[in-house]
Amino acid sequence: MPTQPYFDLNTARATLAWLKPQLRKLKELGEKGGKAMAEFDVESADAYTLRIHKILSRINKKGIDIRDQEATLVDFPAVINNMPAFFCWQNGEEDIEYWHYAEDGFAGRTRITGTEQILSYL
Question: 20-45 pLDDT, tens per residue?
């Protein structure tokens, strides 16, 4: 069983640049799939659903957690101050600016100050 990947801040930020267009595509496909379902176009709805699942699979394989697809809330697993944590990003934020310990969730979001001890790949 593979170990859970973790991100340092630079890797999370680089991955976010890849992720943003994927999330836009998910939203677009979701809207098109919803329209196809409303029109009882099952074949098209199934095709959109398959494309959505493929994108979600690619995101998941990178170790990224989509916590809330509607609000586009995304967590990147990390180790901060020697504890399991997440870099946290949500739609509307330009960059990854927050993190939280794994057990604290969204309510524990804290702005990145640069004083954190972040386990790095380097």
Answer: 999 999 999 999 999 999 999 999 99
- Find, among 86, 66, 89, 68, the residue nearest to 77 by Cα: 86
Q: Is the pTM of this model over 0.85?
A: yes
Question: In the chain, how many domains are there?
Answer: 1
Beta strands in the chain (DSSP E): 65-68, 73-80, 83-90, 98-101, 110-111
Residues 46-88 pLDDT 10s = 999 999 999 999 999 999 999 887 878 999 999 999 999 999 9
Query: In terms of residue numbers, what domain contains 120?
Result: 3-122
What are the residues whose beta carbons fall under 8 Å from the beta carbon of 58, sequence distance 6 or more? 22
Amino acid at 55: I
